[in-house]
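The instructor's notes for this session suggest beginning with a concrete chain rather than abstract definitions. Hand out the sequence below and ask the class to guess, before any prediction is shown, which regions might be ordered.
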Amino acid sequence: MSEPLSSRTLVIERVFNAPRQLVWDAWTKPEHMVRWWGPRAFSCPTAKIDFRVGGKYLMSMSGPMPDGSTAEIWSTGTYKEIHPISKIVCTDSFADAEGNIVPSEHYGMAGFPHQVNVIVEFADMGNKTKMTLHHEDMPEYMGDDATTGWNESFDKLAELLETLR
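After discussion, reveal the predicted structure:
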């Protein structure tokens, strides 16, 4: 029997030069999500969002893999808590294009839990918004890559927010 991989909660804080409502909309509206979701080299061809407690999302990221191929990676989750313009709590799992949960090995990434929690909090800072992301149960070995991926996504989010202001 193998020992479980150690995990941690990844926490990232960012301040965006945009009002809280606009940052919230970028997380909750598919037409915005497709413009920023995923690391720099990835696009988001699909974002389906049923934004209500118990509702689900299904998103894809398409981009280059280490072996030179291009892959489409799907994720799905369920919204557990929604506190308008202040907090979103949802689950997150790897999925196939139909929204069925698949193990991380499906995408060549061993050791991810079947389901994790993502918590995003939004707070006013004058005319800016402080956003805090908590990605729970992140496998320890993925910490640096996950931090880079989230920060590249948030860089794209900052660029999008500038165009929406």
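Then share the key points. The beta strands are 7-16, 47-49, 56-64, 70-83, 87-95, 116-125, 128-139. The chain has one domain: 7-164.
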